[in-house]
Prior knowledge:
- Among the domains are: 8-173, Arc Repressor Mutant, subunit A (Orthogonal Bundle); 269-372, D-Maltodextrin-Binding Protein, domain 2 (3-Layer(aba) Sandwich), CATH 3.40.190.290.
- The chain is of the alpha/beta class.
- Strands 5, 6, 7, 8, 9, 10, 11, 12 and 13 form a 9-stranded mixed sheet that branches. It has a two-stranded antiparallel ribbon with strand order 1-2. Strands 3-4 form a two-stranded antiparallel sheet.
- The chain contains 16 helices and 13 strands.
Amino acid sequence: MNRTAPNLRHLRAFRSVAYHNSVSRASEEVFLSQPAITQAIAKIEKALNIELFSRRTDGVFLTDAGKLFLQRTERADYYLRKGIDEALAVSGAKKKSGFAKLDQLISGVQMRALIAVSETGNFSLAARSIGISQPSLYRAARDLERLSEITLFKKDSRGISLTASAIVWARYAKLAFSELSQTYMEIEEFKGIDTGRIVVGTMPLARSYVLPSAINQVTQNRPGVEISVIDGRYEELLHSLRHGEIDLLIGALRDPPPIDDVLEENLFDDSLALIVRSGHPLVKNEQITIEQLAKYPWITPRPGSPTREKFEALFAASPGLRPTSIVEASSLVLIRGLLMDSDRITILSAHQVRKEKEWGLLSLLSFNLSDAQRPIGLTTRKEWLPTGSQAEFIDALRKAGRDVAAS
């Protein structure tokens, strides 16, 4: 089975056999000969190196591995069909009879071509990224337009851009392919092989304790699992989450969530504090005023983040006192370096710098921040179904969160 561009027709044949417990019934439904269906299933089983059906005189029946595979391929099919419906709705075109069977006509290569063009904005680069010739990719992309009767690609000054219909379709195609990637991992887990992959989008606070603790726990139990950690701005990480490029986000939660197709789970509540180097002139002051804070340069996150909003709120009542010397940064390594070599002030989680406090490098100012609590937790896609290793990783994150809350 080609995991890059799976044969969707073979997957449809597999599901039909699973539903009817019969190759002959499936043959009538998917319009493939019985030998072709048998061969398709054999190819899938060979690629997965596991039997999906047990063959008996009264029919063919799913094995436990087959049940896992069916669940994921059903979810992939759901996203493919939803992508078609959403693309059509965005285009404003009236639904035609051909659309009822469009999900049975599209191919894995066409979906991969759509995704590749959406990521590169260029047919040549897209072809190179998925390992096919440029003419083949161009033909697949244009065939998809012809089948759907929707304009998907348009030329602009930067190359090729996607129409609004294509953008939404590409997103659901990515989610479908993500489900298929999940099933490969699940089958390996079922065979007792830890070859799974967990992709985590992380914001600053989670990197100091919660995430390292969870990674160490899971990799100790499952040494073959690969964990990829991606740092970035919340908006970028959320986009990747919703497109199936990462599995979960961990960091400060938004209230309410910015979009209704994600779920948030609170792990612990974090307290913000004003942080400076240990020898800062304000460290010994038991009472600190806004006027005193305004005299020093600051380090703040980028606009739009909850912590930046807290900084702005500090000086909202006295806008004339708002510091003008500001460095915007989110890297703890950079922030620590700036604090250590200057009299700058920043707003950070007290937990985030607890090691630096223990080492005598940084200190908390005696200034009471109002509404300084903020929830830290997980953000996942609403319809996401984790694999065994991913579920274990989430449990490890929850445990680390409980440890933080208790400390």
